[in-house]
Structure formats: structure tokens, C-alpha cells
Specification:
The protein is an alpha/beta fold. Helices cover about 40% and strands about 15% of the residues. It has two domains: about 120 residues, Aspartate Aminotransferase, domain 1 (Alpha-Beta Complex), CATH 3.90.1150.10; about 220 residues, Type I PLP-dependent aspartate aminotransferase-like (Major domain) (Aspartate Aminotransferase, domain 2, 3-Layer(aba) Sandwich), CATH 3.40.640.10. The chain is built from 13 helices and 15 strands. It has a seven-stranded mixed sheet with strand order 2-10-9-8-7-3-4, with helices on both faces. A four-stranded antiparallel sheet has the order 11-12-15-14.
């Protein structure tokens, strides 16, 4: 048991002889997930999704083609003949071993395979935090990283990457936010949604600041491995740099395999075990099929990266040329790594209304900045299929000029 674990029994019990509780009353009060609900409204109805947060998804055939004929045949045979029973609750030993080998000193006992990074984060917040604990979390952010710890503790301070001169992590500001009562620091790099990035010295300083108060560091590393060709080199995973540091990853963003719903956390065995105990009550185990495909992709990841690089290079060239041609109506600060950036527009219209109209009228998806507290912006992703990306930008420019 991790000290300070949340008491899951704090909710009032249901009286079987009285009035049942309202169906929307939860033990932990969570805000509506604005971005996910908005994405669900439109993502299956648009033709040009250029808000996509991951690299363009692979098919099984494409994954096999990238990995070579013999490897592809072996995967197909494995999938066709495997029994569709329950899989190992923590994730298969083979997958946990493959993931551990991508870290400097991790073992399979340090790894818990989860249903996406979103489950890993949820389990960690509930294992590490209790009401009243102080949390510092990067902001703006994928809403889960703010809403869940805030709901559990009622005591969260936002560490903003938004500044008058750009999007970046101000480590001096973090020094002022962390106190002796801080239990957890939540970081995300490369950053969703701005594309800001922590360097290795930055990461080491975050960990040093956390150590002074005995706080944990949760590093959401959904965009690990998504460097820009010719750009800055990413630091090592945060878990490699400290004992009270946890790395969270996913197959969705860098591998183009979001449909597998496979993520992971890498921590010390005590934390990993505590999260496993909570996971027994949530999703129990990953899909055996997904586990097998994920292990194959991890083992053959070096054959996937060139494909990712080609997509990023083409879309970054397209985006920079498009913004130069439309500098009177749009601007951006290019992502330093990863796939996301915020597109600033000149039109006098709320971002939610603009995003809805783009989706409905020209079938283009750009996420509203208001979902991240950045009004006057739209979130753009450079991982889409290049021809779709280019057409989406052209339709967006024409729509903005018609306004």
C-alpha cells in the first residue's frame, strides 16, 4: 500500500430501502470532460481531422509491411491461432519486458500495462493522493491531468506554460508553487496542446524541486519518440532520472495504434503494485490481442519511426508555408517536438463556435482553444495523413476569410 492512498469508501452508502442516489452522483466530483465530449460530437462526421493528437493510424497490413515479410507472417499466424481468453492482468510478461527495456534500469515488475495512458494516470492519481494533498500540475493540459487530482484532493495549483513571449516551462515559477505540503507534480512533455518541451536539465530540476518536499513526479510522456527530424533531441524518459518519478506512455500517439487501447506506467514496484490493485476493480486486464500487437510494435519500433518522420516533415512544411501565406489571419508557435500546437486566429469569434462551424460547414476538425483555457486559438495536430492535412488547412483559410 502506498502511503496516502485514497480512501475509496468515503462515499455515503446506498440505502436499499430509501430513495436511490441520482444516477449522476459520483463519489469523486469530476468536471465534464470538455475536449473529449466535443471530439466525440464531430470526429466521425468530418473528412479533414487536423486536430488529431496522434500520428496517422496504422493498419495491421501496414504494420507488417514496415516490419518485414517474415515478421508480418509470424504476427498474422500468432493472431489467427491464439486463444481469445483472459490475458495476464498486469500485461503479459513479454510486453512488460519489452517496455522495461526502453528504460535505463526498469524491470518488468516496475511496469503495469493499462487501458491507454488515461487509465494509467487515473490509477496513479487515486493510488498516490488523498483529500487535502497539494498537487502542482502543468496548465493548460489534457483535462484529465487537472480535473482528476483536483477532484480527489481539492488542492491543486496550476503551473502555466502560457507567457507573453511564448509557450514554455518556467522552472523559477515552479520553485514558488511547490511547498512542503506538495505531494505530486504533474508534467507533460512534449506538451499537449502547445508543443512546449522540457529539456534534460529542466527535467532534472523538476525532480530536484520535488525531492525537497518529498513529492512524486508524474510524467505524462504520451509523445515520447516523436522528435522532429533535424529538431531538438528529446531527453530520456523521466523515470530514468529519479526514484520518486513515474513515466506514463501509450501506443496511441507515437505508434499510430490508438485502437489497441494500450498504455503503461513505469514506477517502483510498490507504486506499480498499488495501481494494479486498483485496476482489478476497473478494467481487470488488457486485451490479449492488443497486448500481442503492442509487443510486436515495440519490438519493431525502429521500422516505424521513419514513417512518422516523413509525415511530420511534410506536414510541418505544409503548415509553415500555409501560415506564411495567411499571416494576416493566423499565426502559431511551431511545436518543439510531438505533434500539437496552438493556432491563433484573427477572427472575432469564440473558438467553440468557430470549431463547430468548421466541422459542420466545411467538415474540418480543429479543436477549440477554450477546451484548454486558450480562447482565440484552435489546437492543430501535424500527425494526420499529409493530403488530408493540406486540404484541411486550405478549407480553414477559405472559411476564415469568408468570415
Amino acid at each position: 500500500m502506498v502511503p496516502g492512498g485514497i480512501d475509496v469508501n468515503h462515499a455515503a452508502p446506498h440505502d436499499p430501502f430509501g430513495t436511490p442516489p441520482s444516477p449522476w452522483r459520483y463519489a469523486v466530483k469530476l468536471d465534464p470532460f470538455a475536449l473529449e465530449r466535443w471530439m466525440t460530437t464531430w470526429e466521425l462526421d468530418v473528412d479533414f481531422d487536423i486536430a488529431e493528437s496522434g500520428i496517422y493510424p496504422l493498419s495491421l497490413d501496414e504494420l507488417g509491411d514496415l516490419s518485414g515479410p517474415s515478421a508480418a507472417e509470424e504476427l498474422q499466424t500468432t493472431l489467427r491461432t491464439m486463444r481469445l481468453g483472459y490475458s495476464e492482468a498486469r500485461g503479459s510478461l513479454a510486453l512488460r519486458t519489452a517496455l522495461a527495456m526502453t528504460f535505463a534500469n526498469a524491470t518488468p515488475e516496475d511496469v503495469l500495462v493499462t487501458t491507454g495512458a488515461i487509465e494509467a494516470n487515473f490509477l496513479l492519481f487515486n493510488a498516490l493522493l488523498q483529500p487535502g494533498d497539494h498537487v502542482v500540475a502543468v496548465s493548460p493540459s489534457y483535462q484529465q491531468l487537472l480535473s482528476v487530482p483536483r477532484a480527489i484532493t481539492g488542492n491543486l495549483t496550476e503551473w502555466s506554460v502560457v507567457h507573453d513571449d511564448g509557450f514554455y516551462y518556467d522552472l523559477d515559477e515552479l520553485e514558488t508553487l511547490v511547498t512542503s505540503a506538495t505531494r505530486l507534480i504533474v508534467i507533460n512533455s512534449p506538451h499537449n496542446p502547445t508543443g512546449a518541451m522540457l529539456t534534460r536539465p529542466d527535467l532534472e530540476r523538476v525532480i530536484e524541486i520535488a525531492a525537497r518536499s518529498g513529492a512524486w513526479v508524474l510524467a505524462d510522456e504520451a509523445y515520447r519518440w516523436l522528435e522532429h527530424p533535424g529538431g531538438e533531441k528529446m531527453p530520456p524518459p523521466a523515470r530514468d532520472l529519479g526514484e520518486r518519478v513515474i513515466s506514463v506512455g501509450t501506443m496511441s500517439k507515437p505508434f499510430g495504434l490508438p485502437g489497441l487501447r494500450i498504455g503503461w506506467l513505469v514506477a517502483n514496484p510498490e507504486v506499480a503494485s498499488a495501481c494494479w490493485g486498483l485496476r482489478d476493480y476497473v478494467s481487470l486486464s488488457p486485451s490479449g490481442l492488443s497486448d500481442t500487437i503492442a509487443r510486436f510494435a515495440i519490438d519493431h519500433r525502429e521500422s516505424i519511426w521513419p514513417r512518422n518522420s516523413q509525415i511530420i516533415v511534410r506536414n510541418m512544411e505544409t503548415a509553415n508555408a500555409w501560415i506564411a501565406d495567411n499571416a494576416d489571419i493566423v499565426s502559431w508557435r511551431p511545436p518543439r517536438a510531438g505533434l500539437l500546437a496552438m493556432l491563433k486566429y484573427a477572427a472575432d469569434i469564440p473558438s467553440m463556435e468557430l470549431a463547430d462551424r468548421l466541422a459542420k460547414e466545411v467538415r474540418v476538425m480543429l479543436a477549440p482553444g477554450s477546451a484548454f483555457g486558450l480562447e482565440g486559438h484552435l489546437r492543430i495536430g501535424v500527425g494526420q495523413k499529409p493530403d488530408i492535412f493540406a486540404e484541411g488547412l486550405q478549407r480553414t483559410a477559405a472559411f476564415l476569410r469568408n468570415l
